[in-house]
Amino acid sequence: MSTLRMSRPYHHGDLRTALLDAALQAVEAGGHATLSLRDLAQGLGVSHAAPYRHFANRQALLAAVAATGFARLAEAWLAAWQGAGTTGAGPTDTGPAARLRVAARAYIGFATERPGLFRLMFQGPPPPGAEAAFAGLQATVAAALPGAPEATVKARTIAMWSAMHGFAWLCLEHRIRPAMLGPLAPGAMLEAVLDAALGPQG
Amino acid sequence: MSTLRMSRPYHHGDLRTALLDAALQAVEAGGHATLSLRDLAQGLGVSHAAPYRHFANRQALLAAVAATGFARLAEAWLAAWQGAGTTGAGPTDTGPAARLRVAARAYIGFATERPGLFRLMFQGPPPPGAEAAFAGLQATVAAALPGAPEATVKARTIAMWSAMHGFAWLCLEHRIRPAMLGPLAPGAMLEAVLDAALGPQG
DNA sequence: TCCGCAATGTTGACATTGCCAACTCGAAAC
DNA sequence: GTTTCGAGTTGGCAATGTCAACATTGCGGA
User: Fold this and answer.
1) Alpha-helical runs (H) found in chain B
2) Chain A residues within 8 A (CB-CB) of chain B?
């Protein structure tokens, strides 16, 4: 029975997505290590066991968050890649290598702007959607290497992914910091990594 | 008083290093996320609060483990680099790029052979010793680029570190798996990453 | 040699947390 | 209107990190 007046309805309405949203926010704010299911539930005005009606356990919730992270990353990647290719067909049209470079900056930007989410995405068992990430990457790399054999495309994809992912991670975790760079500007080191991964002609 | 006979001595002797050893083993076996101070203490035949006499908290113990990990990684890196340079001065002598390539393989081998430790090392606040890792890397890269300006050396160091670290991490977390490679052999993709990071002439 | 002290270890406790079982509520199907 | 079942609640348990208070021991100085 409603204890007094205006008591919250017994059913939340859409607790599942509310949990996902709150978890995403918590992961971005404090990292997945400190996320507490009970905190989440309390924040949503719901009892401490309610989350278990929608997620088998903490790990399942985190996996779902990671999956949405992969969707957003793929979105950002593709948007950057497509955006870089729609500058008209004139002589200033962006070549395929330059488009890849723009996309790579989006990848690294995503990582540094959402470090908590990015860390979660690339830790532990791959969540659903992580698999498609490689396929999307490979498709854009293939577009930059028309006519190349599949093995070459895969090799270049892995090389590029490794370079930009490693750089993103090392920046994220402050293993690479501007202080250690001396004369090298932060932007320049990003370009150096991309030069090595894509060739300086990009 | 000793409850009966042969009771363990009240003082452990060297609990600090015993804790470090046990923690290292636990991290390599099950990952740092599941490491429990109480388990560790029980395994060493010591009460559950004893670890707090040597480490302020769980995080401090993990940081110490990570620090020894960095020491071992630097050791492996340097050993590979030096080992690759002592093949005599004949025409088969290894060039600087090839030596870097051997060292990079050692880096990736370290990561894949000790995934739990490697994950710990590159997560959270950098432990003492992490700083020196970059300096060691840079020294070997500098040796491969005699006469190059500092900015170039730093740029190449970061590019190489990013590539090999990213590749190691993605393999570690099974984001890169042999199954997704198709015609590309596992060894070949490693070489492709190193080609991109070092130039194919290495 | 004896005493005191600081380092090291122990016991007990507390709060937090993930997770489970049993129960309840209420909306939708029949 | 009755039934049913998904969704939420209460209560509890075990594990864990951490702290406070106490115990033990070895070592250095009187």
Assistant:
1) 15-30, 37-43, 58-83, 96-113, 115-121, 130-144, 150-172, 186-198
2) 33, 119, 122-126, 130-131, 133-134, 150-151, 154-156, 158-170, 173-176, 180-184, 188-189, 192-193, 195-197
